[in-house]
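ugh ok so i messed up the first submission bc i forgot one of the chains. this is the corrected input, ALL of the components this time, i swear. 1010 residues overall. if the numbers dont match what u have on ur side tell me asap before i send this to the collaborators (the ones from the other lab, u know who)
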Amino acid sequence: MVEIPRSGRSRRSTGFGWFTLSAAVVSVIGTVALVGSAARSIFLAQEDITTIIAGGDFDDLPALLRGNVAAATTSSVRNVPRREKPPRQCEMPQDWFTKQDLTATREPGYTLRNEYVSPYKRRRGFLNDREMRAAEVAWHYFETYTQDSTGLANSVGNYPSTTLWDTASYIAGAVAAYELCLIEKPDFDRRMTQLLTTIKGLDLFRGELPNKVYHTKTGNKVDYSNKPGEIGYSALDIGRLLVWLRILKNRYTYLGNTVDAVLLKWDFSRVIDDEGLLYGASIDKETGETVYNQEGRLGYEEYAAKGFALWGFRPVLAHRAEPFLTASMMGVPVPYDGRDPRIFHSQNYVVTESYLQDGLELGFDLPHDDSTPEWLHSDGWRAEFADRIYRVQEARWRKTGFMTARSEHNVKGPPYFTYDTIFSDGYSWNTVTPRGDYVPDHAAVAAKAALGLWALWDTEYTDVLYDAIIELYDPENGMYEGLYERGQGRVEIFTANNNGIILTSLLHKVQGTILTPYTGNTEVWYTAYRDQDLREKRRYPDPPLEEDWLPALRHTFHRGNDF
Amino acid sequence: MAYKHIATVFMLGLLTLAPLRSQAQQASSPPDTFASENAILDTSIPFAIGAREARQELRGAFGWATFQEGLVEGVYFRFDPDGYARFAPTPRLDEDVFEVICRPRTLSCMGRKQELSMFLNTRGQLELRIEGTQPGDQFFMAEGLNEIQLPNRILQPLEDGLETLLGSGGELIMRRNEAEAARISLEGFGAVVAYLRWIVARQDYTVLPRGWPVPGAVSNGSANLTQTPAWLSPMPQPMVPQATQTTADPELNRVRDELSMLRTLLAQRALGPETSSTQAGSDSRQMPAPIPAYPDTTQRMDDIQSAIGNLERQLAQARTHPGQPAPVYGGPGLDTSPRPDNLPAEEQHTTTANGNDIARRLAYLISEIGLDPRAAVMVLQLREGKSTQVGDLATSDQVVSDIMGELRQTTRDVGVGNGEAPQVTTTDYMILSDYFCAIMKEKAFCP
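and heres the new structure output, hopefully the right one now
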């Protein structure tokens, strides 16, 4: 056995190990500190130079130049191809729809960007004979009731009065008629040019924005009895017109300057505030002064807000769903505006129309979205809420047998207008007059709502609605307003809004979302009056950049398998 | 009969020309309907305290920009500038609705609910029409289980008494061959009548009934005011109808009101027939129908006062003799004549309309029948008026007798039901005060 001699402290001792480790740690820390300090001193010693390119991200452009920047859209920011305007129906090849990629490649529900994929398919294809006949009759309304003197179309039959809302419906009708090849370009151009010229020349309400009602024969401001006078303006009506002016401008670039000229006469300083709320105007009966009141409730408010956003405004608050509540109806949480009508003196009607218009015209997309496929809705919560609006109406049909397609609609005879709602005033399926009287006898299947649902939700139920409505017309006057729910027959009245939305629904079947991307760069709307203070006074916006986009939100935690 | 024919012709003319909402759908067009000259009312002038003008949410190009809504006499109402109005006990105005429609550009309006329609004739008197009425139909007014028969005169221009009676609420029943042909709720009747008069008077408050809560009126605390702080809903909300305002001592106020009304009525009579006829001729729409005057109002007042004293004495006497049968009404085999006192029955029918008689009947109608004091006075006026015209005082009890007969029948029906009549005796009945005295055994309840 060999004995190993012990000589002082062994190099394998525990103490030596700890010493070595500590030394190594200290040396590493010291080295890192020295290197970091040196690097910091080197960076600090360098001169802060950032290259700014004119018009680039770091270029703080003066107001004089900001109009030249192109509006930021999803295609430009994400560098993806933008959607293209489809051809007119008569110019589509026979295999057009077989080549279109219309099937969703994602599961239904929200995406990470809060986009939404609906579990329902849109109805797409060529119009059949029945649908073409309905389109012809609906367009005949505008042929019959457009005034030669002004180019304005009557709101209701031969009553020579109209609003901006209904004028937008006329534009919708004209666009659909042209795209469905019911009229040709000369006729379309003549109509639109005359109309836009008239709108440009309208006497505004107190120099701000168009009065709520105009006489269609004279183009004069009138009151609700069609007598000369002024009553204020409606932010919702203006919002809808802005949607259709943008559609006109984007689809038919040659009309762009005329469209811009219309808007560049208007003063937007009061209609939208810094928070992004929309305000309508009226006249105080006693003092005669202008009164501005917040306008719009869940549904219409967001639709109108998107109209403003399409022209660069930032209606952030108006576009938000809050405050909203839900009413459980037949298992469906139906959203309604949470502002108490007893306090705000404004009703929270839940109807189909505003959701339809968003879906048909804007594809439930955000205003800056010009690239997402048709089945992906970048304004996710709007599409998801719209699905609820559809589902509760189908549920009512399945559970009670009542065909249901509810909207505000005209009726023949006083009060001439009915809010035929899904929910309002705390009651489901509430049908009320504008002053709040409960009038269940006015409940009806609204033709525009029925065909709008048919276009956006390709289901067995909307097939039933289609059969009920598609031949509901008078060849001489247009499509009837609807079919009374309690068996009183047709709602024998003809309106611009009903016929306009029906034409839009039919056009949507052929072309999909009506709004097409803007294909130009700068716009007169953004460049005009840059050398004056007029833009500041009237609060004309600059081209929206990415940070100006309306946010994409969601209000539920539904995932694909929730459905 | 001639008067009835004239009224019928007028009514037919009104119905022919009036733009009923349904008829207007066929005939008129929006510009005609909403033209400013069609506005007959200013919706900024409140119909009652608490009513407010509201703006219509018009999405279209036409319509009335404003309307007025409120709560009065326990009914909610809304009306448009063209006079169209709805009155209902619920804020949603969806059930039991009185609807008022007006002929365009005129002040001719008509209220209607189910088969009942009513309007003011050219003399400002209220007239009723009941659809489907046939000769021989009988009319009754029901309030809960109580029912009284109404004279067929309700289809003629209504006297003030009948109008007040109908305005007190309940239901109007039309029977044909003992079978019920129609049953119409009278909820809101009074408010609609007031509204019709208010329209005709171009929104003048002076034509509204006594105690109507008009702006600027001196409130005695008992008026039915709209409770604006608690009732904010401009539109239908699921809510309980707002109760009327109460005071610290409502009973005291009620008695004061009744006394005040009695004084006024008697003072009106004291003005004599000349004044009444003048009023009826000049502005009959704004004043009640002429009331037959008593020949000597002062004497009547004295009679009433002495009758009240007599009643009190008799009541005290009755209380001191608990074994004596209390006055009862209804039981089979009993004398069911209205005998609130112990006077012999024959004495009641042989005397003329002296103070004791009037006071007795008044007390009976108020305390036993349960009529509103004003209505009770009107019933007596009717009786008096009839007797004055006919000159047969024996028949002046007809109205009261009719009412009592019907009441007896009703009471009998209620008590008996479909089975045999129960065997009740006078000992089964007890005055309420005696009952309290028996169970409370306190001096405060046992005079």
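quick check: Chain A has 19 helices and 22 strands. that seems consistent at least. Chain A touches chain B at residues 155-156, 158-163, 165-166, 213, 223-227, 231, 282, 285, 341-343, 345-347, 408, 410-417, 425-427, 432, 434-438, 440 (CB under 8 Å).
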